[in-house]
Amino acid sequence: MKKIILFLISSLFLLGACKSNISKDMIPNRITESNKLNAFFQKTYDEDVAESPMQQTRLGIKTEDYGKWDDISEKNRDKKLKINKERLAFLEDSINVDLLDKTTLLSYKLAKENLQNDISDFKYRLHNYPLNQMFGWHSSIPAFLINMHKISNISDAEACISRLQKTTILFSQVEDELKLRAEKGIMPPKFVFDLVINDCENILSGSPFNKTTNDNLLIEDFKNKINALAINSHQKTSLTQEANDALLKHVKPAYTSLIALLKTQKEKATTEIGAWKLPGGKAFYNAALQRTTTTNMTSDEIHELGLSEVQRIHNDMRNIMNTVGFKGDLQAFFTFMKDSEQFYYPNTPEGKKAYLAEAASLIETMKSRLDELFITKPRADIEVKAVEAFREKSAGKAFYQRGTPDGSRPGIFYANLYDMKSMPTYQMEALAYHEGIPGHHMQLSIAQEMDNLPMFRKFAYYTAYSEGWGLYTELLPKEIGMYSDPYSNFGRLAMELWRACRLVVDTGIHDKKWTRTQAISFYIENTPNAKLDAVKMVERHIVMPSQATAYKIGMNKILNLRTDAKTRLKDKFDIREFHEVVLSNGLVPLNVLEDLVDEWIVSKLD
């Protein structure tokens, strides 16, 4: 049956590569080396997708696996390590890199580096917290079923019920993961447990879990989806009953058991927050910084860069403060921006609806200006949604979820409207650009819509490139006249300042042993953001070591490359061509991006 899955995947994503079996003795004169390698990439990509029912769903593929979850066991990780070693050996032993075309040579280098990194980092495979307030199986499963699992017919509905029934199996593996880490002394700090337990308990609210007129979010979503089907009322009633039974007999016991384990582990947890506390913590954090930033910057260098950027942005903010005629120092201006009601929608359903509508309008306006800055535009559409109630209390401020390659599911810009005082209108413009257009939606959609890239590059992810682009695109609209309101420009600077502070705080927590209070205070003292923002950000740093350093380092690199291109090309510089180079190769490490831009510059000078 796996062969059928591979055939379906290949049919959807055919790149024109030869699909014959790959062998080390393949005769070079019968197939070019580039086609040989691209066939290998397609084959291995198909194999990986065939092993991941959840990735199939994300890609809009429906097979017999539509009712299953992924295997997240340690045994499966060992299997993946063996496969990676075999694939690396093939690249090293069976490919003549001198015969590869330019695009395929880059794919070779990226694939080889990815495999080498995965193999090298296997020793750190448990150095994470699979359940935390930012993400985890406890919250991603309901979000996956609601946002990813489409129901177009009875078979799809039965697959959803099957996934509900298999939650106990998946959560048994999740519990094994937590126990394995605890044995090695890898546990999140105590406060994380309270947030995760609260999210789990929220998921178990509503009918059929308790006697109430309000449906649980999962059964509500299921009913909405089957009610849209052209089936009779008896079939709808029968499917709903099966879903209810699955929730009571499988989902509830899975969450109840998980909550019990979390409460037990919480008693053993400490309040220590940095990666330094983990086994081999210093080496792990240094490796994490290298992977996240795709640079060789040290923790101290990142920390100092953050401090200098904070000072620079503070000076730019003082200029805006003078422009609007504010009397007082920068801290007083921060207080004014935090406390003034003019910068906030009311914390009501109407206020939240208005926020979403304005954010969508900002994206639509930016769409009309894209030709001034870009050659290639995304085909996929984008929607703006509020973070769902069950996870809004602990989720981040905003985030993006990519759509399917075929456009059947649009990209989604999620805004967290749990506390409207954390979502000031003066930051709305920059937030919409970052998560939507020309930020993540444009970047990720264009990557997966590129016809000349192998599939693994279409879905590659390098945090410094991705988030660096997001932050860069907060600034970019200003250069074509957006941010006409000085307060909105202040909001843009406030968000850049926030990312600069991240460089200081992340390294402070994980390398310099800052306390949680010390880290929160740095944000409160240096930014205009609400205290809740500072608390959530520090809690994010704690459970995602190094991740937050990517934004500012990536943005600075893109700006430096653009400045270099302008200096060298002078009147030959074209911003649209520069962006085409940055976006048309998929997501890449920053050093590779530098090489691509340099090649473009040289070609323009010839």
TrEMBL record:
* Keywords (A to Z) from UniProt: Signal
What residue ranges are annotated as transmembrane?
Answer: none
- On whether Repressor is a keyword of this UniProt record, the answer is no
Higher taxonomy: Bacteria, Pseudomonadati, Bacteroidota, Flavobacteriia, Flavobacteriales
Protein name from the UniProt record = DUF885 family protein
**Source organism (scientific name):** Mariniflexile ostreae
Signal listed as a keyword: yes
UniProt xrefs under Pfam families? DUF885
Q: Tell me the first and last residues of the signal peptide.
A: 1-19
